[in-house]
Write the structure tokens for this entry.
Amino acid sequence: MSSESFERAASAPVLLVGVDFGVPHFDDELEELGLLAQTAGLLPVARLTCKRKAPDAALFVGSGKADEIRMLADMHGAKEVWFDQSLSPAQQRNLERHIQMPVNDRTMLILEIFAQRARSHEGKLQVELARLQYISTRLVRRWSHLERQAGGIGGRGGPGEKQMELDRRMIDESIKRTKERLKKVKKQRSTQRRQRARRDVFNISLVGYTNAGKSTLFNAMVKARAYAADQLFATLDTTTRQMYLTEAEVSVSLSDTVGFIRDLPHGLVDAFQATLQEAIDADLLLHVIDASNPGFPEQIQQVQKVLGEIGADDVPQILVFNKLDAIDPERQPALLQDVYELDGVQVLRVFVSARSGQGLAQLRQLLAERVLQAREEAGRAEQEARGDESWMPPESDEPY
């Protein structure tokens, strides 16, 4: 689906479909898919869920359920069908033939939202690369009307095969050009990071599930005006600002990064490597969590999974449970600061409301303590490297 066709489909009525294969995070209400559809400008008019032990190789849901999808779509006037899971090119093609209307998957929906929201040159390049890589696997569907134009006796292929080859070559060349342009952007970002490192700047990155309130927290911490809204993927481009911590009498670098989501397309993880590099190179991650969302434990695990995929899982974290003002009175925490077990490790946690400002003073104090601790450790390491015998570790019964 091209961006032009997607714009024409904006506000079009769509049917949402989810298949439960027994995974623990299955959204039986299709709430997140519905939010994604609305974010993209679509209008969900009906939802359908079903259970299967495994995907059907041809139609993903089987012929009987495909017939039910077609009847439900006709009943509600839906013009498109969107699946909450990723479909193979063959499944997508077969479903469109069976249902006789456009069929797309979660991956395509996320790609289209990213294409709409990207603002920076780097962000647009990254989205374009992911989109091209996705489309390149679906040429068989896009050019199926030419498949009948095979050559005659003795021929090795007709116009249909030739057109597909030309189209694939054009996409491959576009992918190559986009990758080269992204390499230049990565070099520029690397230069900027080296300059910050030479200035001995402590780097902090905000990470978290989409719509956890990262941009609102970012604005509150650095008095910035980064775009923030109660919607999925409000921020796609990394924004970095200097933040002065009075408690430590030092300036630190704070970066707001793209939000993560369940089943984030691998193409986007790869394509956004340059943007997510801010998280990899950070000295500290502020993992922002929507404390008012009952499904926050699953969202935490999804963020941890992506952090592992990009090589940032060993960066120290502070868990920032945001939206304290939206938590029901009976669920309010007894303390604004405690610890939370994350992957078997006790991690510091602080409750805040980026909107009202509650808890932000405690968060700034924690950041100041981390910066001072990092400076002290760096000083000890430098003395040890020089073989300075005047420095001795403090006597303590606790393990050093």
